[in-house]
Each structure stands twice: as structure tokens, then as C-alpha cells.
Amino acid sequence: MNKYFKMNNGIAIPAIGFGTWQTPDGDIAIQSVEQAIKVGYRHIDTAAIYGNEQSIGSGIKKSGSNRKDLFITSKVWNTERGYDKTLRAFDKTIKDLQLDYLDLYLIHWPATANQFENWERLNTETWKAMEKIYNTGKVHAIGVSNFQPHHLEALLNSATIVPAINQIEFHPGFMQEKCVKYCKEHNILVEAWSPLGTGRMLSNNLLKTIADKYQKSVAQLCIRWILQNGVLPLPKSISPDRIKENFEIFDFEISKEDMQTINNMEYCGGSGLDPDKISF
Ligand code: A2P
């Protein structure tokens, strides 16, 4: 299993990222990031709306790592859509993270028809700003999050740069097959948020039985299963032991049969967030 994926602009991205959604700001975020880097993660995923960028930045500094060895992602929040606001949001994000550049910047959620009559136009304007930032070199790749094929289709009509990434909810029982297929066909790498179903997968009996066979935890099984599906997992934890555990997924391989069994699982819980229905 390769430890990197390659994005459509040729840049390598570490194959597992450290998720920080719901990681409280302050010492917990700082220590979690330090621990993640210590045990081997080189890819950290945050967002302005998580409210922890300053602490993530402090954790990165405290780790003593070379900036160029790390891959840092953040996202522009929904209230900052549009050309000028996105440019300003990016400046605030890199200032809060205490960085000179980002490796990846994403549109956090698409503007959609349920909230905006001119949703396509709004996404186009936001994307123009993303392209502008990319062309200045202050971000090495740009992408989207929570975009369904119809949102991507509309964006691609006016985009000059194809998004490198689409970060979506992805875990056993919720594989978003149509969206993943569309992304693969358009050379857009899919990242998985909530790879453990925000913890909901951990008590699943079928997953437990399969995990036992490999002497791995259900969390490790889910993370490895995502990788073997060609998707990039972003597990979150604030526990030093679980942060380490979630990175120990390069030393086993799930068989074809077990992959199929997990791929065939029915929906068994998820966030329930649909980009076409959200109200935030
Ligand atoms: P904690 O941060 O206390 O470890 P997801 O990445 O799908 O959003 O899931 C995150 C949730 O799963 C959090 O509640 C996290 O809690 C928990 N979690 C993360 N890794 C593990 C693990 N290896 N074992 C058990 N729970 C985990």
C-alpha cells in the first residue's frame, strides 16, 4: 500500500490525514497535533469553522517538523463564499495557522439551490478566488468538499482548474458510489470525512468479526478499507493511544472477500447531512 496518493496536478498527498473536526481549541488541539506528527502523520486537515486553526498552527510549530514535510489543508466556510470574501478568508486562515502557504484549500460546502437562486454563479465566484490563490503559489492544490456530481458538473463548466480533491462523508454503509465514480472519472481524488461514522461504526458486530480476523480494531479496519477503496481517510481522535492506533494500518491487507462484504453493508448510521438540504 502506497503511503501517498498523487493529485491531478502531480503533487503527492500523504494517504492518511489527521482529522480535527470537533477537536476542541486550546491544549487538546495542540497536543493532538503534536502526537499525530510524532507517530507518523504528515497530513493534517482543519477548517476555519472548526475554530481550532490557531491551536493546530501551534501544534505544528511545537512538533519541530520541517514545514515542507507536512501537508496542511483548510477550508473556506459557507459565510465567506464569493470572490473577495474567499480571498480574505484564506489570508485569515494562513495567519491563524501561522503558515506562509497551505498545501490544500477546499470549498467546505457547495452553495446549493435550496438556499441560493444563483448557486452556480456563487460557486463559480468562490472557485475563481481559489484559482487566483493557487496561481499566486500560496496554496499548492485546490479542491472542494461535500460536492455531489451535479455541483461539480456546474463548477466544471466555468473552472479553468479541475478540483484536485472532493472531501465527502465516506464510511462502511455510506460509500456514496455515484459521487466517487464521478470523481474517479474526472481524476478528482476523494477524501473521507467521518471514516468511523463519527464513531458509529465501532460497535458494528460484522465489522468487529472481520477486524478480529486480522487482530486489528474496528477503527483500523475502517481506515484500511477506505484506503483499499482508493479513498483517503481522515480519522479524528484526541486520545494519544487512538491517534497512534489509527495510523497503524500499513501492516495488514483486507482480503478481496472481506472488502466485498464491507462494501455490501447496508446503511447503518452517518451524519445525515445532505448538501442539498443543509441550512448552514
Ligand atoms: P476520540 O477523539 O475521543 O478518540 P470520525 O473520524 O469518523 O469522525 O470518528 C471520530 C470519533 O471516533 C471520535 O468520537 C473519536 O473519539 C472516536 N475514535 C477515533 N479513533 C478511535 C479509535 N481508534 N477507537 C475508538 N474510538 C475512536
UniProtKB/TrEMBL annotation:
Family: Belongs to the aldo/keto reductase family.
Active-site residues annotated for this sequence: 50 (proton donor)
Site (described: Lowers pKa of active site Tyr): 75
UniProt keyword NADP present: yes
Residue span(s) of domain NADP-dependent oxidoreductase: 16-264
Entry coiled-coil feature ranges: none
Protein's UniProt name: NADP-dependent oxidoreductase domain-containing protein
Taxonomy, superkingdom: Bacteria
UniProt-listed InterPro entries: AKR, Aldo/ket_reductase_CS, NAD(P)_OxRdtase_dom_sf, NADP_OxRdtase_dom
Native species: Bacteroides fragilis CL05T12C13
Gene3D superfamilies the UniProt entry points to: NADP-dependent oxidoreductase domain
Swiss-Prot/TrEMBL keywords: NADP, Oxidoreductase
Keyword flag NADP: yes
Gene Ontology terms for molecular function: oxidoreductase activity, acting on the CH-OH group of donors, NAD or NADP as acceptor
UniProt: substrate binding residues: 108
A Pfam match: Aldo_ket_red
